[in-house]
């Protein structure tokens, strides 16, 4: 039985393995300090001049003073109370600091509290980057480092999300300002606010006419900034909506004189084009002249012709009568 390691021994062994493996992990820290700052490890014992004082860092003796005489370390390493002064901290100062005191007669003053100190860099000021994702969504991503906590603000109001990336429907956040607050145990920084700009303010579109096939016409609504979110709608002169889509194709004979407009829109703006008329099919004779229907001219011409014929007939008849007489 005695040769068998007890459960407690195994547990202690495993625990020590664990604590070695996780050295420097923040879960082990009692106190956090920022790189470059100072920290004093308090000696929770009233020191006598005759006492011998030792400070250990992770089992290494780093300071030893016996009867006012410094044997290891510098005089300056401790203050008048015997507390250990750590200045200009680097991550190398991370560790467990423990004091030991022996009286003049060599007896120990007992177990004194130790401190596990962790030195961390202050967080950098974070940046928020914006990505327009699939139609209608936007991602905001905070440049958060490892082991740093994050909180989000939308127009200075704290949000629930604690993740690095925030996804929103664009229509809900057209003008909203997003910023992230990044923190660790020694500091916090907040980013500058960022707004979505997935949608550009649209400019006036231009309609181009393209004769396709032998009896079709295609109108194309051209916009200068073409992102994925632009919607196209077509109207005719009577403002009756025709179809959606960037192009509109019609049988030419159905739209000989129809004036088409396109309406481009996205969630923040819209614009209407100038009207466009097909130019593929010219009727064999003009249907209008000086804005007056050709039928007026044809009708007028026919009337004139009849008048001439009637007049000629009347003249002829009169002439014959005269001859008879
Ligand atoms: C920290 O310790 C490592 C080795 O333990 C050493 O190489 C490095 O220079 C030290 N850094 C500082 C800032 O003291
Ligand atoms: C944020 O951006 C600035 C300028 O581009 C850069 O200097 C800084 O390092 C960035 N911060 C982080 C945390 O990436
Ligand atoms: C946007 O964020 C979501 C959730 O974090 C992620 O799954 C997706 O890949 C991101 N999309 C882009 C384009 O960054
Ligand atoms: C950022 O978060 C930290 C930690 O939660 C907090 O102490 C700090 O006040 C926050 N800063 C702002 C500006 O809200
Ligand atoms: C007209 O359409 C055809 C095919 O649809 C295309 O190849 C041609 O480039 C277009 N022309 C113009 C002026 O848009
Ligand atoms: C153009 O489309 C937008 C978005 O659908 C709409 O709000 C606007 O009223 C339309 N304009 C016209 C003149 O139809």
From TrEMBL:
GO terms for cellular component: membrane. The keyword Membrane applies. Its main location: membrane. Keywords: Glycoprotein, Membrane, Signal, Transmembrane, Transmembrane helix. It is found in: Membrane. Residues 1-27 form the signal peptide. Residues 113-191, 205-273 form the Ig-like domain. InterPro entries: CD2/SLAM_rcpt, Ig-like_dom, Ig-like_dom_sf, Ig-like_fold. It comes from the Eukaryota. The chain crosses the membrane at residues 289-317. The keyword Nucleus does not apply. This is Ig-like domain-containing protein. It comes from Oreochromis aureus.
């Amino acid at each position: 039985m005695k040769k068998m390691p007890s459960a407690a021994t195994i547990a202690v062994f495993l625990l020590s393995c664990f604590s070695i493996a996780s050295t420097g992990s923040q879960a082990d820290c009692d106190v956090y300090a920022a790189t470059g700052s100072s920290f004093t490890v308090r000696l929770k014992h009233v020191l006598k001049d005759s006492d011998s004082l030792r400070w250990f860092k992770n089992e290494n003796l780093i300071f030893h003073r016996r009867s006012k005489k410094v044997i290891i370390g510098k005089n300056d390493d401790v203050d008048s109370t015997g507390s250990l002064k750590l200045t200009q901290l680097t991550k190398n100062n991370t560790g467990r600091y423990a004091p030991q005191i022996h009286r003049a007669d060599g007896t120990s003053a007992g177990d004194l509290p130790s401190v596990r100190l962790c030195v961390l860099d202050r967080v950098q000021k974070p940046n928020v980057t914006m990505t327009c994702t699939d139609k209608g969504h936007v991602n905001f991503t905070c440049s958060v480092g490892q082991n740093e906590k994050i909180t989000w603000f939308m127009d200075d109001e704290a949000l629930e999300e604690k993740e690095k990336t925030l996804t929103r429907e664009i229509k809900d956040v057209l003008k909203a300002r997003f910023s992230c607050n990044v923190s660790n145990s020694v500091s916090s920084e907040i980013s500058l606010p960022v707004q979505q700009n997935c949608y550009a303010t649209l400019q006036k579109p231009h309609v181009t006419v393209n004769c396709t096939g032998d009896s079709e016409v295609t109108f194309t609504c051209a916009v200068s900034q073409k992102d994925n979110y632009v919607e196209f709608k077509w109207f005719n002169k009577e403002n009756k909506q025709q179809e959606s889509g960037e192009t509109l194709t019609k049988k030419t004979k159905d739209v000989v004189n129809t004036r088409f407009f396109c309406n481009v829109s996205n969630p923040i703006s819209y614009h209407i084009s100038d009207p466009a008329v097909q130019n593929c099919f010219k009727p064999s004779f003009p249907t209008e002249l000086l804005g007056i229907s050709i039928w007026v001219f044809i009708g007028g011409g026919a009337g004139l012709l009849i008048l001439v014929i009637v007049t000629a007939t009347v003249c002829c008849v009169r002439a014959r009568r005269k001859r008879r007489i």
